[in-house]
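Q: what sequence does this backbone want?
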């Protein structure tokens, strides 16, 4: 059938007459509502949960000049996210951050909003983002992933290949699964045959009640209908440590809170601000300042951006009665830079290698190195590819401004990182590729840095990265590392 490109005058006249004839006539009756049997629980789940799922789009434009002509190629990567809080806090997969570009969130009504990174954890492939400038969003209802049954219905909502808000249904196919992704090793996962495609990762896995029971993370590349999901009970447990408000924003509160259900205080640190305010184990935090906290993760969100010295009112339920306690958050001082004469510093790190078999880091001070030299930055150096060795790398790191810095080590096997005499990252033990992170407030200047590492059998890996004020996460560059030239 040929496509219709033109319309005849006669036809146009008929259309016009029909349009005019509609004036004053009753409007056509609305289509009847779908038969009740068509409105299944799956339809209800999609309608209920769709507003709580967002699409992330990261776009960049590559410019390439060929002869006298410049071409512009636009690249876009899609992902999904689960809204956890009305203020816009949303969990997704950390691997989405590896695609650089302008990032935005698109909500179910088609509107776009800017996105801000709060915290990431590549080891568990989770990231917490905040959708800014949006009206209050509808958070997902969090379910229980500890009592899942193989065979029970499972539903995903995501954006496969950028096809917005696509739903797929299947079942729980397995529990306690493990997988290696391009970015990390994950264990304790849910397996489902509900479709997970590129663009769907970060979206929710839902049960038939519309409760979020997990965050979709990946699909098996060489298989069909094999998808992996991070259980929601693991997400609940990880969010407080991923955000780490006290360490990230350099204040002290001194509370330990249960990670599931209501935010019940399980411990109060002695001589902490919380202890001074009279908070007790067993208290339930119902509100932080003006933010209601019905779930434990809501306390974490309410602490984002706080600072030492803030007077923070907490509303508590104690023995069934409401009380208000005002906590003055403690201040964590900046570590002052060491008074090192710049003229005595030269580029690189002291590198010492040791031979031996260990299951955890040894006391290198008691051992004699087999190799001593300098290397530009952190790495395995001449010991790469060998087994049964240890390394100690020491020097100074220069930071440009005052603030809180995060340090990361990814190692196979164990590693630790010190700034001065403070252990910042503890990644010790005989294990595969694992990343750990720590925070420390630093004043601008030079600070002693030490990384220790050991390798057992199998693969070897040592990566050291940092981020801080004005610095996105990156491997620590040689330009900021030095050592004393007259010290061996």
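A:
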């Amino acid at each position: 059938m040929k496509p219709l490109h033109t319309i005849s005058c006669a036809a146009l006249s008929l259309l016009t007459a029909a349009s005019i004839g509609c004036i004053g006539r009753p409007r056509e009756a609305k289509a009847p509502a779908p038969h009740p049997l068509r409105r299944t629980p799956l339809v209800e789940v999609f309608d209920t949960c769709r507003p709580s799922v967002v699409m992330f789009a990261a776009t960049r434009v590559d410019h390439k000049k060929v002869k006298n002509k410049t071409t512009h190629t636009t690249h876009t990567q899609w992902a999904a996210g689960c809204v956890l809080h009305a203020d816009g806090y949303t969990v997704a997969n950390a691997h989405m951050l590896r695609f650089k570009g302008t990032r935005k969130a698109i909500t179910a009504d088609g509107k776009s909003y800017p996105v801000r990174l709060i915290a990431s954890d590549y080891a568990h492939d989770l990231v917490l983002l905040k959708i800014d400038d949006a009206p209050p969003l509808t958070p997902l209802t969090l379910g229980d992933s500890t009592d899942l049954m193989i065979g029970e219905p499972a539903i995903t909502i995501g954006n496969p290949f950028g096809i917005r808000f696509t739903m797929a249904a299947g079942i729980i196919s397995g529990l306690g699964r493990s997988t290696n992704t391009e970015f990390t090793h994950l264990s304790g996962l849910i397996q489902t045959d509900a479709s997970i495609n590129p663009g769907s990762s970060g979206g929710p896995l839902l049960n038939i009640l519309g409760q979020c029971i997990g965050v979709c993370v990946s699909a098996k590349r060489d298989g069909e209908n094999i998808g992996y999901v991070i259980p929601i009970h693991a997400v609940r447990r990880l969010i407080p440590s991923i955000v780490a408000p006290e360490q990230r924003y350099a204040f002290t509160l001194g509370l330990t809170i249960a990670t599931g259900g209501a935010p019940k205080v399980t411990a109060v640190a002695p001589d902490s601000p919380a202890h001074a305010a009279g908070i007790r184990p067993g208290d339930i935090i119902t509100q932080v300042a003006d933010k209601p906290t019905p779930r434990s993760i809501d306390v974490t969100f309410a602490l984002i951006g706080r600072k030492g010295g803030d007077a923070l009112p907490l509303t508590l339920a104690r023995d069934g009665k409401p009380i208000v306690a005002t906590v003055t958050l403690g201040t964590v001082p900046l570590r002052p830079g060491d008074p090192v004469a710049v003229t005595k510093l030269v580029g690189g790190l002291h590198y010492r290698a040791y031979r031996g078999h260990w299951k955890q880091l040894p006391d290198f001070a008691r051992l004699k190195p087999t190799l001593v030299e300098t290397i530009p930055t952190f790495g395995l150096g001449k010991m790469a590819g060998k087994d049964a060795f240890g390394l100690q790398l020491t020097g100074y790191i220069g930071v440009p401004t005052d603030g809180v810095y995060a340090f990361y080590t990814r190692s196979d096997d164990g590693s630790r990182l010190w700034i001065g005499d403070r252990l910042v990252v503890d990644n010790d033990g005989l294990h595969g590729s694992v990343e750990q992170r720590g925070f420390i407030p630093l004043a601008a200047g030079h600070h002693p840095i030490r990384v220790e590492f050991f390798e057992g059998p199998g693969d070897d890996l040592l990566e050291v990265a940092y981020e801080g004020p004005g610095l996105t996460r990156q491997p620590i560059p040689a330009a900021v590392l030095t050592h004393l030239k007259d010290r061996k």
